[in-house]
Write a structure and sequence with these properties.
The complex is a heterodimer of chains A (483) and B (95).
Chain A lengths: L4 E2 L4 E13 L36 E2 H13 L7 E2 L2 E4 L9 E4 L9 E6 L5 E13 L3 E3 L6 E5 L6 E7 L6 H18 L11 E10 L9 E6 L2 H20 L8 E5 L4 E4 L12 E2 L6 E2 L2 H9 L5 H12 L3 H8 L2 H11 L4 H19 L10 H12 L5 H14 L3 H7 L8 H14 L1 H8 L5 H12 L6 H12 L1
Parallel strand pairs in A: 13-14
Antiparallel strand pairs in A: 1-2, 2-11, 2-12, 4-17, 5-6, 5-16, 7-8, 8-11, 9-10, 12-13, 14-15
Chain B lengths: L4 H10 L9 H16 L22 E2 L9 H4 L6 E2 L2 E5 L4
Antiparallel strand pairs in B: 2-3
Classes of the chains: A alpha+beta (483), B alpha+beta (95).
Amino acid sequence: MGYAIKGSTGVWEVVVGLEVHAQVISRAKLFSGAATDFGAPPNTQVSFVDAAFPGMLPVINRECVAQAVRTGLGLNSQIHLVSRFDRKNYFYADLPAGYQISQYQHPIVGEGRIEIELADGSTREIGITRLHLEQDAGKSLHDRHPTKSYIDLNRAGVALMEIVSEPDIRSPEEAGAYLRKLRTILRYLGTCDGNMEEGSMRADVNVSVRRHGEPYRTRCEVKNVNSVRFVMQAIEAEAKRQIEVWESGSAVEQETRLFDPAQGSTRSMRSKEDAHDYRYFPDPDLLPLVLDEAWVAELKAKLPELPDAKKRRFMQEYGLPAYDAGVLVAEQATADYYEAVAKGRDTKIAANWVMGDLFAALNRAGRTIADSPIPASSLGKLLDLIADNTISGRIAKDVFEAMVESGEDPATLVERKGLRQVTDLGAIEGVIEGVLAANADKVAEYKSGREKLFGFFVGQVMKAMSGKGNPALVNEALRRKLT
Amino acid sequence: MSLDAATIRRIATLARIRVEDHELTSLAAELNGILGWIEQLNEVNVDGIEPLTGAQQMALKMREDDVTDGGYPEKVLANAPDRAGSFYAVPKVVE
């Protein structure tokens, strides 16, 4: 039994489909040679094409097309060798031409699918309906003047990929997993940076509810939700609202809604009533987009190893459990880091250090693996020092923290701080004798059967040796002395 | 095909063109005339012909991904009815 919401008249299933707008990584815009960099001064990255000056003609950017093809391949989708651009007409101040160039009837990418992983370890396939290329609009600023809106066209004409899923998603958790997986794939492919905060990935969420086994009921579209968490919240809030509408005897009306994170609810966007009449027609400025099959094959051959394949390889090659492999491949930089540490070493110990101590240290410092204070080579050297018995695992934790602080090489740190492990049996036995002599009462107790005290003796010996005794040798020598 | 007054009004609204009531009748006649003329094209038999894909189909020319344009906000803003710094300024449009 999956996710369901209990209403006053019974249990409801949630049906969700997502439309994700992903900004394409390219130097220039989709149909003009203006730059795409984020945060430039207003209207400095605008050509006459982007500002829709009369007589200006769009010319498509080959790299944007390549990025859409790569993404389609990464989403296991069909690539359409012939596609077409249409004009989507609507009136808004940040859309200077009065239409957006988009792909309506003949998108560049058709059906595909991705696999999502859920918290209980199960996996599900979510269908992709299509991916098409289109232009982004400009940016309107409404809060700078009491009666005017300010328009910056820097973003106008930047390439977007709209990625539409099938209505296969059945819970907020699945929607979150889908978005995270999509983001991971896009980042691996290098086709979108997946940054939802800066708006380079935005989601429209289609939600409906139904009784189990029923056909689909009317859906509502919640527009422009800009974080994974908000998408999950919006689905729950909108589903609950629709259940109330149905249960009160009314019918849900198909409409566009907005999610208000502060209120945790959705509200109607009534002013957009006319906006759905987009009067699409083929753009007469643009011939059909025809792709050479050999070029598509070339792009396919150059794709990087994608997260699913990498995860399988990590499980086979390094013997990692599915969960660990999943965590390590979520970001390509993490996967690369792990592989550098694991190479030629104990792969599971390497995984534990990366996912445990390293992640904790990065979290504390608010840094990402890309600017980790400890390079993979240094963490590798630290593991070597444990493997060859130079230091104990316990001391290694202290060395690691010191490395985070100073960025020093682990071997240098160990020498400078005198942390090298004591493996001289004579020295260890000397300390043990001292500890046993000072705790004669406990020795007697131990010998009369309180075997739990063994741990106490180990602790005392290690303390006396400032933690530097080789644990295996200390244990062994203690056992000998106590029998 | 024939357009009624309500449809004319809707088309005008979508195009943000103001049409006075007394203009509706003449506009409908003009638009219906244009549509009727174009509808003659329906007499051509296009069975089995793919839209836009003839025998000598030309494909879209592509451009390399180089920054070759932009960087002239003054020219872009030259015809703006109103501006604020390097922004266009328009009557407030907010949802």
